[in-house]
Amino acid sequence: MRDPLSVLRTLVSSSRALLTGAREVARFREIATVFVTHGFGWAFAQLKLRRELQVEFEGADLTRKALSDPDTGKRLVAALTKLGPTFVKLGQILSTRTDVLPLSITRELEALQDNVEPVPFSQIEVQLVRNLGEKWRDHFADLDEKPLASASIAQVHRGTLVDGRKVALKVQRPGVRSKIESDLGILLVLGSWLEEAIDEARAMDIQGVITGFTKSISAELDFRIEARNLDRFRANFADKPEVVFPAVQAELSTAEILCMDFLEGRKFSEVLESGEDTKPLVSIYFNTAYKMLFFDGFFHGDLHPGNVLVLPDNKVGVLDCGMVGRLSPSAKDRVIDILYGVINEDLEVVARTFYELSIRTGPVDYEKFEADVIEIAERYLVGIPLSEIQIGTLFGEIVAGATRHAVRMPTDFTMLFKAIITTEGMAKSIAPDVDPIELARPFITQMVAERYSPERLKQIALGDFNMISRMFRSLPRTLPALIDDIRAGKLAVNLSPDALAEQDRRAVARQKRTVRLAVTLGFLACGTYSLGLGLPVWPLVGVPALTAFLFFGAGVGLFSLWWK
Predict the structure, then answer these.
(1) Half-sphere exposure of 448 (CA within 13 A, CB side)
(2) What is this structure's pTM?
(3) Tens digit of pLDDT for each residue in 459-516?
């Protein structure tokens, strides 16, 4: 892919385009023109590219006020739709970023539809020949040339293999990869320039948003990644026959072709119209979503009604697994902490855990941050029946409010919160009296129990022990260098009296934490050792009483480390 940055910078400095960059320059001009005509001229005017790009600003609203009008979200949707697949996908990603955009705009962006006119089958056949060979038809008894669905990146055709299996064939649109890659290069340049010209753009981390989007859409362009996602979901739900993910036909799948089992089912809207009881389906849907989110840490990024089918025998089928989110074990623990705080109305825990999850982009006044989080949480939690609590909306408002304190959430967490909002909205649309907290409770209880299981405590203790061991092993190498720097006057410390007092406080806290850690490790080591002594088993807990006491002590120690 050509680098549009060098082309555009040449334009700005000399007003002459390189011939090889003509397409990128024309596209950049088109993007600027569309945004200007839809009321976003002020932002582009700050770039001072009017003469170089020959963008027409006549009659355009170039005031900042146009960026915060009530119809800003609708105008943004119209502009993104006009600019095509890359920008539609960007809008869909931005709809999850309540930490970057106001809720009024993200809600409008949720309406962006990725439905486009299908390309003729002759173009699809070119892709099939290129990926599966000239004799691609030998694999199929039949293939419907009329697509089942058509989106900006690919369209899906129904077919039957020669062995009788019904399949869905997802085929990437010809040329879409090069178009998207070109747009991504321009977006990266544009994001960089906006951050240089506009303080708000830098505070919103526009470049970071675009970089994350680039990774996401690049993954969607490689169907082998979606195939691996499907395989992983099928493995995670192998013991859940009521949840079905289509199996991938690997021999007929490439980076641009994905062949998978066809799921014959109905939309939820059709089930509702039939008057059938939807409560069993709601339970399956919630259990599926919560298992992904809170137990597996590997979840579908867009589990909306269009991606969920009702299959025979009250089974649920899940489609379109190109966009996924991931949470590490420690991150899952933090999410459980938040939910546990929500259930128990422990708002300080909710605020502190959100802060621990966040990325700080500047100095943070934690007391003000905590006060803001508690104020938002009180509106959603205090005095509200559990069945009426909207977890996703609560999380969304906290994430949006955090930006006022130079705090933002990692991308996977914004996707997580968006997934929770989608899950709640889906379930309530088919069963308004559903209690999402009650359905989540078994998962939260299980996660809390697993956190303090002997095996998990042993893993944590071993991890802490290895970390401390590495630190002490590095001292012989680092300490002499530090002493040399001090002797040479290369190390300077300039602290105010308040900072010194704070350093003393932190030093005392670290000493106390070290003592607690040592005691905890001692309890854990002794408890683990006692398992091999052949002591009588206490039936109530399934381990010797001494072991249970020692592990309990280790658990108290770990809790004190976490709490402080």
Answers:
(1) 13
(2) 0.69
(3) 556 655 666 666 666 666 666 766 766 666 665 555 555 555 666 666 666 666 666 6
**Residue 299 β-bridge partners:** 325
Q: Are residues 104 and 199 in the same domain?
A: yes
List, in sequence order, every residue forming a beta bridge with 158; answer none if it has no partner.
168
Determine the average pLDDT of the residues in 238-243. 94
User: How far is Cα 423 from Cα 406, in angstroms, rounded to an integer?
Assistant: 29
Determine the Cα–Cα distance for residues 510 and 529; give it in Å rounded to an integer. 28
How many angstroms separate the CA atoms of 150 and 155, rounded?
A: 4
- The full DSSP string for 237-306 is TTT-TTEE-PPB-GGG--SSEEEEEPP--B-HHHHHHHT---HHHHHHHHHHHHIIIIIISEEES---GG
Average predicted confidence (pLDDT) for the chain: 77
The pair of three-digit structure tokens given for residue 103, joined into one six-digit string = 């809720």
**Number of domains forming the structure of the chain:** 4
Indicate the pLDDT class of residue 337, thresholds 50, 70 and 90.
Answer: confident
Structure tokens of 366?
């934690």
Enclosing domain of residue 306: 266-451
Tens digits of residue pLDDT in 420-434: 777 777 766 777 676
Using DSSP's 3-state secondary structure scheme, residue 543 falls into strand
Token digits of residue 498: 């308040």
Please say whether the beta carbons of 153 and 226 come within 8 A. no
Asked if residue 445 and residue 304 are part of one domain, the reply reads yes
- The one-character DSSP state at 80 is H
Same domain assignment for residues 459 and 537: yes
Contact (CB, 8 A) for 15 and 52: yes
State both tokens at 308. Answer: 């969920």
Residues 250 and 312 in one domain: no
Alpha-helical segments (H) within 98-150: 103-109, 121-132
Q: Is the CB of residue 278 less than 8 Å from the CB of residue 271?
A: yes
CA angle (173, 175, 178) in 5-degree steps: 125
